[in-house]
Design a protein that fits this description.
It is globular, with a radius of gyration of 23 Å. With 421 residues, the protein is an alpha/beta fold. It folds into two domains: 8-230 and 393-413, 3-Layer(aba) Sandwich (Aldehyde Dehydrogenase, Chain A, domain 1); 235-376, Aldehyde Dehydrogenase, Chain A, domain 2 (3-Layer(aba) Sandwich). Helix 1 packs across helix 8 (192-198), helix 2 (31-47) crosses helix 7 and helix 5 packs parallel to helix 6. The protein is built from 14 helices and 16 strands. The N and C termini lie far apart (53 Å). 41% of the residues lie in helices and 19% in strands. The model has no long low-confidence stretch (mean pLDDT 95). The strands form four sheets. The protein has a seven-stranded parallel β-sheet with strand order 10-9-11-8-7-12-13, with helices on both faces.
Amino acid sequence: MLQSTSDPVALVADMGRRARAAATQIARLPTSHKCKALMTAAAAVRDSAATILAANAEDMADGRTNGLSPAMLDRLALNSERLEAMAAGIEAVAQLRDPVGMVIDEAIRPNGLKLSRVRVPLGVVGIIYESRPNVTADAAALCLKSGNAVILRGGSEASRSNRAIHAALSAGLAKADVPVDAIQLVPTTDRAAVGAMLAAHGLIDIIVPRGGKALVARVQEDARVPVLAHLDGICHTYIDVDADPAKAKQIAVNAKMRRTGVCGATETLLIDRKFAEPLPILAALIDAGCAIRGDATTVALEPRAEAAEDSDWETEYLDAIISVRFVDSVEGAIGHIAAYGSGHTDAIVTENAATAEIFLSAVDSAIVMHNASTQFADGAEFGLGAEIGIATGRLHARGPVALEGLTTYKWLVRGTGQIRP
């Protein structure tokens, strides 16, 4: 029986033990059984649409009353189309290649020992997230398909929505004869539960935070459990001297304005001083509703731009604001990104293949692009299905984290009686 929510530490410990027991069973499920469970869960989400949407309407009403920003309300909102996309996303994960048991590499030693590295689940994954109720379904589906149990702790602003989605997922698992403890939702909004998860070494194997900078910073500072995360999405688009002007304008506007509140939105536009047509790009951004905070060259070109402060180069706006700086060549762009970038996503726009390769090689970010909008920094767009988050560290996983990022590996050694001399 689940512990009382009045004691978050005991609650999380109990959930962790139950998740560990479920993970042991999930790790051994055949792919067909996991796929059946996911398809059944997707059907349960559709069957519970009215209940989920009613719960979300209550969360939205409270969010407006509590002064949530338009960007936060947009992340929180569900409708029939988004709910169908959620169910379809679960089904899409079911169809993805199962990473568990996948052979990474293998070799035969001179003594005849056969070695192989195979993918295995991480175990128990803890997800701490804000606003987006779709994360409840996405994370659950990815963890189940990769053989992991998951403990979900959503934000208080989406508590009713998350509970309704979780209830549907649990019903789907039960119907497919899969342990319902494989997908658990922390049933309290007490912030002490977050601290308990961060300290749950031995019960939770990895924490994935998804939310604002304050949340991610707290997780990274306080966790005694390994963390897979990115703190900032300070993404850059660099317009090279050899960029196609029409292509550059289209990419720059899309990279900033398609959705300003996502972590893959471009926050700083870098332009080569010798690029022939910068003004149409600046004007197109402003005409699209974007405020520009630029260096002296930018303000001289476009009177509607404001002068940038030093802090603008290291700001993730998540809003219709962009900082603009003119740089000397691709090396100037690389230097600026090295100084101010967050290792998330950076792009170059150029028709010069050699320059593109210099940028792709030198920029040390999780995702580096050529002639494409940074808004493509998304697991679904990479063909990975729903993502559990984007990681900017250098250990374990980097970029969009999906099924393979939720596995580790073990060595299998097969012998015929060899002993070591």
